[in-house]
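The following record pairs a protein chain with its ligand, adenosine-5'-diphosphate.
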Amino acid sequence: MKIILLGPPGAGKGTQATMLEDKFGIPQISTGDMLRAAVRAQSPMGVKAKECMDAGELVSDEIVVGIVRERLQQEDCQGGFILDGFPRTIPQADALKQVLIDIAKPLDSVVSLQVDTDALVERLTGRRTCRQCGKGFHLKFDPPGADGRCTVCGGELVQRDDDCEETIRNRMQVYHQQTAPLEDYYRAEGLLQVIDGMADIADVQASIVKALQDK
Ligand code: ADP
Ligand code: AMP
């Protein structure tokens, strides 16, 4: 299965992608995670990307298309993949189209998660991630253990630098200007499946799985 998870910041793309990865045995490809790894490693690409990420702006199409093109050619993507957070602009979608033609892996579905703005802000401000294993939590909706630590590895939970209110506002604006037009782009290709992302995590997962199976 080759799918894209589309939706604004905080819609639940990463949460759902991790669950789909386990269910279908195909990798989650999160450009945000890859860029944060590059920032941590202080690679030249990470150093370049950090400024944009901290400001809630998009990293250049050239950089993200390059990392996705390379990633999709790896062995574990042969049976399919879940793109999370990519594409985010029309040029990225055009570039992806060409990459998928080159590797003969057409998309099966583009799942768009619909979530109200107020809920997005609440989800983003309460989001926490394990510093050690990367597992995601939410202080209210998907809480960590009683000790406030990761339920999988006991690691310390941290808040992303860009999950502060000011940056969140900018990320929402960037989403509406640059990413939301992708809904029409993929609707025109007959690939878009719209899902109500307001339900709880398990119910959203069930709706996505059903939509993918119906396709
Ligand atoms: P995205 O990858 O789209 O930015 P995440 O998957 O990281 O979003 O989710 C943002 C936050 O919202 C996380 O803390 C996650 O635990 C929480 N979350 C995800 N899905 C839901 C949901 N259906 N209901 C409530 N909270 C959710
Ligand atoms: P995310 O983890 O998907 O919320 O992404 C965090 C940040 O990484 C974004 O605000 C952007 O700065 C950057 N980023 C992630 N994916 C992309 C992309 N496809 N195009 C451009 N920038 C991206």
